[in-house]
């Protein structure tokens, strides 16, 4: 074999070995879902996976109760149960002696006093978790750690609807007010004012302070005849999909609007005149009947009295 051919073969083998080694060391760790928002005491499923073909060690580290549901060489599927507080999950894999990991925040939405500091610090590295040592906080210099703020969420539990006034004439204005107490975060809330299934008005809210807020939406409208045949209601929707959560909805109790037709002034005057005339005729007829009945009674009573006196007279006094 020529020296040129031997050199080419050596370079090719060297490149193959180097490339295969670099592919084995350059691997990634993934966790699904990445962001988790749950209710208190709720359970969830987490999948840890890696791009390493033959990982040496892998798994999920958490202080919560976990159950391994299924696994293959490149992934593991866990059930996390009885989640009662905010925490951090760590997926980790070791490939060719190198460790890689990925973390995910788990937020339990509930009310909390705004004066409390809800920020937590993550471990400086997953090594302390993987080796089952206490989790140190990142306070030293040169330690690459993050301290994200744990987000709390309070879905709408009560929605109140008010109609003012509840009895309105056609063509007159009325006001619909929707009020949702104790909701968070306010910038993810949308209030829909509904007439039947039709949206009359929707309102969103800007970024607010990290505390429980009261949301209010008000809309003024003109009363129509068909408004009396529809229910009015309010829908509060808290959309947490962008933060790894769900969409929470709450409806208010439906309310009805009493609609009546306004009576023109000229028509009212005519009605009053007609009623007055009818009442006068009725009273007059009653009085005439009474007068005629008395006159007739007096005539009958007077004739019978003369005849009776005539019969009582003695025969001698009669002509």
UniProtKB/TrEMBL annotation:
Residues 1-21 form the signal peptide. It comes from the Eukaryota. It holds the Pfam family ICAM_N. Its main location: membrane. One of its GO terms (cellular component) is plasma membrane. The chain crosses the membrane at residues 268-292. Keywords: Cell adhesion, Disulfide bond, Glycoprotein, Immunoglobulin domain, Membrane, Repeat, Signal, Transmembrane, Transmembrane helix. Residues 24-110 form the Intercellular adhesion molecule N-terminal domain. One of its GO terms (molecular function) is integrin binding. CDD domains: IgI_N_ICAM-2. It is found in: Membrane. One of its GO terms (biological process) is cell-cell adhesion. It is a single-pass type I membrane protein. Belongs to the immunoglobulin superfamily. ICAM family. This is Intercellular adhesion molecule 2. It comes from Piliocolobus tephrosceles.
């Amino acid at each position: 074999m020529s020296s040129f051919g031997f050199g080419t073969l050596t370079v090719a083998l060297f490149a193959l070995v180097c490339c295969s080694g670099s592919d084995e060391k350059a691997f990634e760790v993934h966790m699904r879902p990445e962001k988790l928002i749950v209710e208190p005491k709720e359970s969830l499923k987490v999948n840890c996976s890696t791009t390493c073909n033959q990982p040496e060690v892998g798994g999920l580290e958490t202080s919560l109760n976990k159950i391994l549901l299924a696994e293959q060489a490149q992934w593991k599927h866990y059930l996390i149960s009885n989640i009662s507080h905010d925490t951090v999950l760590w997926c980790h894999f070791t490939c060719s002696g190198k460790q890689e990991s990925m973390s995910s925040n788990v937020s339990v939405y509930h009310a909390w006093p705004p004066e409390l500091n809800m920020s937590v610090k993550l471990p400086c590295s997953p090594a302390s978790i993987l080796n089952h040592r206490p989790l140190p906080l990142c306070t030293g210099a040169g330690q690459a750690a993050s301290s994200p703020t744990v987000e709390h969420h309070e879905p709408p539990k009560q929605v109140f609807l008010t109609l003012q006034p509840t009895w309105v004439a056609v063509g007159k204005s009325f006001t619909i007010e929707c009020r949702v107490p104790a909701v968070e975060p306010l910038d993810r809330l949308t209030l829909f004012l509904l007439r039947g299934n039709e949206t009359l008005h929707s309102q969103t809210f800007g970024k607010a302070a990290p505390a429980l807020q009261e949301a209010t939406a008000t809309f003024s409208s003109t009363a129509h005849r068909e408004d009396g045949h529809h229910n009015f209601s309010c829908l509060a929707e808290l959309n947490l999909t962008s933060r790894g959560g769900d969409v929470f909805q709450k409806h208010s109790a439906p309310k009805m609007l009493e609609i009546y037709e306004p009576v023109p002034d000229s028509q009212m005057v005519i009605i009053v005149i007609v009623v007055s005339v009818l009442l006068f005729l009725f009273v007059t007829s009653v009085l005439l009947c009474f007068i005629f009945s008395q006159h007739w009674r007096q005539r009958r009573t007077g004739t019978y009295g003369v005849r009776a006196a005539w019969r009582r007279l003695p025969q001698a006094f009669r002509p």
